[in-house]
Design brief:
By secondary structure, the chain is of the alpha/beta class. It has helices at 79-85, 122-134, 155-160, 185-192, 206-218; strands at residues 3-15, 18-25, 36-40, 52-56, 66-71, 92-96, 112-117, 140-146, 165-169, 179-180, 199-205, 226-231. 20% of the residues lie in helices and 32% in strands. Strand 11, helix 5 (206-218) and strand 12 (226-231) form a beta-alpha-beta unit. It is globular, with a radius of gyration of 18 Å.
C-alpha cells in the first residue's frame, strides 16, 4: 500500500460518543465516494490491536479535508482510539491510498436502497455529499438503524441531498415517534419496496451486515443486488 502523510486539522462532535476527524493530506488523495483507507497512528504502549485501523472516508472527494467519523465505545476502548481522541492540531499520521468498491453504480438510472447500521452511515455520508456537490441525481431510499436518538447524525447532509432518511431506533425513549425495533430483511423490503433491478447497499457492524445478507437472500433478493460493507469490531444493532 502506498502511504502518505496527513496532518490533523480539527475534529467535530456529532453525538456524545461520535466524532469526525478532519485531516489535510500532503498531496491530493484520488478517491471515489464510499471508499475506505488504512490509518496508521503511532502511539506509545499500543495494545494487541496495534497502530493501524481501517476507516471509511466520511468526506467526499469534492471537499477540502479528508475526514473519518468514528465512535467511542466506553469500556473496551483500544489504545488506538484513545490516541485518536487525544490528537492535537498539527499532529501527523500515515494514510493509505483509498480502496474498495462500495461506490455508486455506473448507471445513473439504477434504483438504490442504502441500509446503514450505526456508524455504517459514513460511506453514505460521503456518497450523498458527493451527489449534492456535483448535482447528480439518483433514486435513493435510505434506512438508518441506531441504538438511541443521540446516534442520529448527518441529518443536514441527507436534507441537502434531498433524501428522506427513515431512522429505526432499537432502544428509543418514550418520546420517539418514528420506527422502532431491530432492523431486519422484512423491514427493509417493507419500507423500501425494491424491485428486481434495485441495488441494496448494506453497511454496518459485521454481525449485522452478515445477518441481513442471509435474510435478504432468503427473502428473494438476488446476490447480484447486494453490495456489502463490513465494519469489524463493532457490536450489532
Amino acid at each position: 500500500l502506498e502511504l502518505m502523510q496527513v496532518t490533523f486539522d480539527h475534529s467535530k462532535d456529532r453525538a456524545s460518543n461520535i466524532r469526525t476527524f478532519y485531516f489535510t493530506p500532503e498531496r491530493k488523495l484520488d478517491y471515489t465516494a464510499g471508499q475506505f483507507i488504512e490509518l496508521t497512528l503511532k502511539h506509545s504502549n499500543p495494545d494487541s490491536r496495534g497502530q493501524k485501523r481501517w476507516f471509511t472516508l466520511s468526506s467526499s472527494p469534492t471537499q477540502e479535508f479528508l475526514s473519518i467519523t468514528t465512535k467511542w465505545a466506553d469500556e473496551k476502548q483500544s489504545s488506538f482510539k484513545k490516541a485518536l481522541w487525544k490528537l492535537e492540531p498539527g499532529d501527523t499520521l500515515e494514510m493509505s491510498e483509498a480502496m474498495g468498491d462500495f461506490v455508486l453504480p455506473k448507471l445513473i438510472q439504477t434504483k438504490l436502497v442504502f441500509v446503514a447500521g450505526g456508524i455504517g452511515i459514513t460511506p453514505f455520508h460521503s456518497i450523498l455529499n458527493w451527489l449534492s456537490d456535483t448535482g447528480e441525481t439518483r433514486t435513493i431510499k435510505l434506512l438508518h438503524a441506531v441504538r438511541n436518538e443521540d446516534e442520529i447524525i448527518f441529518q443536514k447532509t441527507f436534507e441537502r441531498a434531498g433524501i428522506h432518511a427513515t431512522t429505526i431506533v432499537s432502544d428509543p425513549s418514550s418520546a420517539w415517534g418514528g420506527e422502532r425495533g431491530r432492523l431486519d430483511a422484512e423491514k427493509i423490503i417493507g419500507i423500501t419496496e425494491p424491485d428486481e433491478d434495485t441495488l441494496i447497499y448494506v453497511s454496518g457492524p459485521e454481525p449485522m451486515t452478515e445477518a441481513l445478507e442471509k435474510d435478504l437472500k432468503k427473502a428473494g433478493i438476488k446476490p447480484a443486488q447486494l453490495v456489502l460493507d463490513f465494519f469489524p469490531n463493532y457490536p450489532s444493532y
